[in-house]
Design a protein that fits this description.
The protein is an alpha+beta fold. The chain has three domains: 74 residues, no CATH class; 73 residues, GMP Synthetase, Chain A, domain 3, CATH 3.30.300.130; 117 residues, Rieske [2Fe-2S] iron-sulphur domain (Rieske Iron-sulfur Protein, 3-layer Sandwich), CATH 2.102.10. 32% of the residues lie in helices and 24% in strands. The strands form four sheets. It has a five-stranded antiparallel sheet, with no helix packed on it. A hairpin with a 3-residue loop joins strand 1 and strand 2. Helix 5 runs antiparallel to helix 6. It is elongated. The structure holds FE2/S2 (inorganic) cluster (FES).
Length: 303
């Protein structure tokens, strides 16, 4: 093989413009299905051949890109052609380029979906504002539920930060589907409500109070299993928080409550009793405990 002479570059037939990625992948997919039926040793040989071939192509393309980067005009053309679906798919397959921010956010959401779906909820990507902001929407049982703040911060946010370290701001859009009513039963008694991040069927629930004894949009202070807690009610939904301010951990029970908003008596941080979110410093939130309401009995589970 003669290398290094541009005259050796073979003119390629012009690709039909309507040859899309799926059409080009069709033969590969069919051959992969065929190989999957072979015995293990044959499969391993094919995979080794694929890896060696990919490594060769990756090295060649990386060298090509390195050379192109030296020419500013060529860089513009390179950036533009990376947007082509076939070029992008090949460069991604060879791991010459990192997944896009959009792909990584979707991967992050995908990683927490089984957990959210097991509680009747979901999450969708609403918007990405590069370089550092993502807007998501919680759906189903996650939307507007008392623990949505916790679900968001502990599950979805963690996953997004893990997959996309450059994201520093995660905004939550309102307006997902209405919460799914929970209609399971425990010993034949209907469960009216259970925190979406909890499993009603689990063991370890502690009786706390009767539903009618919990004031609507206000607080009832109790000690259950050694935990000082605040219970609050919004129709049949009950929320439960540790009696500790997210600012300095001071007790909140002497705080003033105005229409579902609890004001810390120490430095006046304000909290939504429905979601546990801090309205003064949105990055913090009250420590939430799981709640289930069976008939008129409210039970708490400490995780
Ligand atoms: S301890 Fe509650 S605001 Fe400071």
């Amino acid at each position: 093989m003669h290398m290094g002479d541009p005259a050796n570059i073979i003119e390629q037939p012009v690709q039909q413009p309507d040859t899309d990625l799926n059409t080009l992948l069709k033969d590969i997919t069919a051959l992969e299905a065929l190989v999957n039926d072979w015995d293990e040793q044959q499969q391993q040989t094919v995979h080794a051949l694929q890896r060696a071939s990919d490594a060769l192509h990756k090295e060649a393309i990386s060298r090509l890109i390195k050379a192109v980067k030296q020419v500013p005009e060529a860089m513009t053309a390179l950036k533009s052609i990376v947007g082509d679906e076939v070029v992008y798919a090949v460069l991604r397959h060879l791991e010459v380029i990192r997944p896009s921010l959009h792909e990584r956010v979707e991967q992050a959401l995908e990683s927490v979906r089984p957990y959210l779906e097991s509680h009747g909820g979901n999450v969708e990507l609403v918007n990405i504002s590069p370089p550092d902001t993502v807007t998501i929407r919680l759906l189903g049982a996650c939307d507007g539920c008392p623990a949505s703040g916790l679900t968001l911060s502990e599950g979805v946010e963690k996953a997004i930060h893990q997959y996309c370290p450059e994201i520093t701001t995660i905004e939550k859009a309102k307006g997902g589907m209405s919460a799914k009513p929970v209609s399971n039963t425990t010993d034949g008694v209907p469960v009216h409500f259970v925190s979406p991040f909890a499993n009603s069927a689990d063991a370890g629930w502690e009786y706390a109070a009767l539903l009618q004894d919990i004031p609507e949009k206000n607080i009832k202070v109790l000690t259950v299993a050694g935990n000082e807690i605040l219970l609050s009610r919004f129709a049949n939904k009950v929320t439960c928080y540790q009696n500790a301010c997210a600012h300095l951990g001071m007790p909140l029970d002497m705080g003033e409550v105005r229409d579902g908003i609890l004001i810390c008596p120490h430095h006046a941080f304000e909290y939504s009793l429905e979601s546990g979110e801090c309205l003064t410093a949105p990055e913090v939130q009250l420590q939430t405990h799981a709640v289930r309401v069976i008939g008129d009995k409210v039970e708490i589970k400490f995780l």
